[in-house]
Amino acid sequence: MKWARSILPPVVVGVLAIVAWELTVSLGRVAPFILPAPSAIWRELVAQRQNVWEAALASGTNALIGLAAGAVLGVLAAMVASRFKPLTEVSIPFAAVLNALPIIALAPILNNMFESTSSIPRRLVTAIIVFFPVFVNTLRGLREVDPIHRELMHTYAASGWTFARKVRLPGALPYVFTGLRQASSLAVIAAVVAEYFGGLQTGLGSRITSAAAFTAYPRAWAFVVGACLLGLVFYLTTLLLERLTMPWRTRLIA
Amino acid sequence: MSAVVVSSVTKTFNIGRTDEVTALSEVDLTVGDGEFVSLIGPSGCGKSTLLRLIADLIEPSTGTVTVAGKGAGQARKEQAYGIAFQQAGLFEWRTVLRNVELPLELRGMGKAERKARAEEMLTLVGLEDFGGHYPAQLSGGMQQRVAIARALAVQPPLLLMDEPFGALDEMTRERLQSELLGICAKTGTSTVFVTHSISEAVFLSDRVVVMSARPGRITASVTVDLPSRDDAGRQSPPFFDKITEVRQALRGTPLKTVS
């Protein structure tokens, strides 16, 4: 009952929005190249489901590998940076510069560095984009240690490594996941958009550009829906992982 | 052998700077084996500083601190004391049981053994049914009891407590005071207890050490010998007499001004 009450409002709003969209397009005689009707997109999505699925798998693989690599690097870099205070002060502006860089714009340059059939440039772009939120959030988490915990570990004569393993890392987990949650959606966006700049034509991004080039707008939108679903899957998986990794938090909500 | 010997200890913070402050000046304190000593005084009298010196969380500027016959640093490394602070300071990602296990874990005790010991400690503080809970699921008083169980887990000869009941309501406080006395009697632990509640100090202690501020030093030592340490003890005339004595020592007025 409680579950229905929290699920129902967004579903109702969503259905109403789609109905309004459909009516606007059909009654307002909106040209399909401006905005196709949801029914047309749905027809294309059903017709192209095999293609959408395969394209989503290709983009999803790139996003996943990029996400994993960027996240691991981000956490490791944060651990190193938090260990040495001067490094923290140097690394934060450095990371900010990295973040200000339009990394997607690197895609064509990276494409030229590798073979045209290589997926590496896309995974690289994704990894670089993922790195920043994971690094910054993890670093903050690692640095925020309860002073009492610090003193307690001191009275237990715990070594620096023990302290990092037993206190710093678990204490930083909520922050790591804040970064991962942002990064998971970013990873899909990065992997899809990086495909706009040539290279392999297997992913959602290249399917969207080629459908648009052929003025097949409902089909382009069908792949956009696929990208949207892929992003959602990444985000929800991260949320699930967060719940599983930090049972003490889920119990709080329950 | 005395549990704690502090001899002519001075502690100055920020030496050589404009904000230099002498927290403790020429302090001598001896805590006998099994003795319960409270440190009481106004804010800034250095009572917490003194406790932290004994715990080797900070080092004295001059003088020496000996715990169980060893230097404070050595005693800390051997986990010769357990410590509890005003905040429970539990690790939220560990269950209650695993919180109590932590000091044992760091000592390299085996899994089964430390689990048994932690369960025993939780029984001691009356929380044997809560081992699987996470700290955030417990009330403040229960969390503080877990912190005490954790401090006792290594069965240290010395217990150091820095206003452990300061953040609790009066009812919980009095119950935990009685529990603490029971535990100390059972385990024979010597205790140094920092508080700014006069009644708490008198009720718990064999001796109340009164301190004054700027510079922090010991001004009086009041030996307390109550007929009993229970609710009847809280009502007894000697209890109120000792409260008056400690209060006067805190104010620095002579004892005989009360007619």
UniProtKB/TrEMBL annotation, chain A:
<feature type="domain" description="ABC transmembrane type-1">
    <location>
        <begin position="56"/>
        <end position="242"/>
    </location>
</feature>
<protein>
    <submittedName>
        <fullName>NitT/TauT family transport system permease protein</fullName>
    </submittedName>
</protein>
<feature type="transmembrane region" description="Helical">
    <location>
        <begin position="92"/>
        <end position="111"/>
    </location>
</feature>
<keyword id="KW-0812">Transmembrane</keyword>
<feature type="transmembrane region" description="Helical">
    <location>
        <begin position="12"/>
        <end position="35"/>
    </location>
</feature>
<keyword id="KW-0472">Membrane</keyword>
<dbReference type="GO" id="GO:0055085">
    <property type="term" value="P:transmembrane transport"/>
</dbReference>
<feature type="transmembrane region" description="Helical">
    <location>
        <begin position="55"/>
        <end position="80"/>
    </location>
</feature>
<feature type="transmembrane region" description="Helical">
    <location>
        <begin position="183"/>
        <end position="200"/>
    </location>
</feature>
<keyword id="KW-0813">Transport</keyword>
<dbReference type="GO" id="GO:0005886">
    <property type="term" value="C:plasma membrane"/>
</dbReference>
<keyword id="KW-1003">Cell membrane</keyword>
<feature type="transmembrane region" description="Helical">
    <location>
        <begin position="123"/>
        <end position="142"/>
    </location>
</feature>
<dbReference type="Pfam" id="PF00528">
    <property type="entry name" value="BPD_transp_1"/>
</dbReference>
<keyword id="KW-1133">Transmembrane helix</keyword>
<dbReference type="InterPro" id="IPR000515">
    <property type="entry name" value="MetI-like"/>
</dbReference>
<dbReference type="InterPro" id="IPR035906">
    <property type="entry name" value="MetI-like_sf"/>
</dbReference>
<comment type="similarity">
    <text>Belongs to the binding-protein-dependent transport system permease family.</text>
</comment>
<feature type="transmembrane region" description="Helical">
    <location>
        <begin position="220"/>
        <end position="241"/>
    </location>
</feature>
Automatic annotation (TrEMBL), chain B:
<keyword id="KW-0067">ATP-binding</keyword>
<dbReference type="InterPro" id="IPR027417">
    <property type="entry name" value="P-loop_NTPase"/>
</dbReference>
<dbReference type="InterPro" id="IPR017871">
    <property type="entry name" value="ABC_transporter-like_CS"/>
</dbReference>
<keyword id="KW-0813">Transport</keyword>
<feature type="domain" description="ABC transporter">
    <location>
        <begin position="4"/>
        <end position="238"/>
    </location>
</feature>
<dbReference type="GO" id="GO:0016887">
    <property type="term" value="F:ATP hydrolysis activity"/>
</dbReference>
<dbReference type="InterPro" id="IPR050166">
    <property type="entry name" value="ABC_transporter_ATP-bind"/>
</dbReference>
<protein>
    <submittedName>
        <fullName>NitT/TauT family transport system ATP-binding protein</fullName>
    </submittedName>
</protein>
<keyword id="KW-0547">Nucleotide-binding</keyword>
<dbReference type="InterPro" id="IPR003439">
    <property type="entry name" value="ABC_transporter-like_ATP-bd"/>
</dbReference>
<dbReference type="Pfam" id="PF00005">
    <property type="entry name" value="ABC_tran"/>
</dbReference>
<dbReference type="InterPro" id="IPR003593">
    <property type="entry name" value="AAA+_ATPase"/>
</dbReference>
<dbReference type="GO" id="GO:0005524">
    <property type="term" value="F:ATP binding"/>
</dbReference>
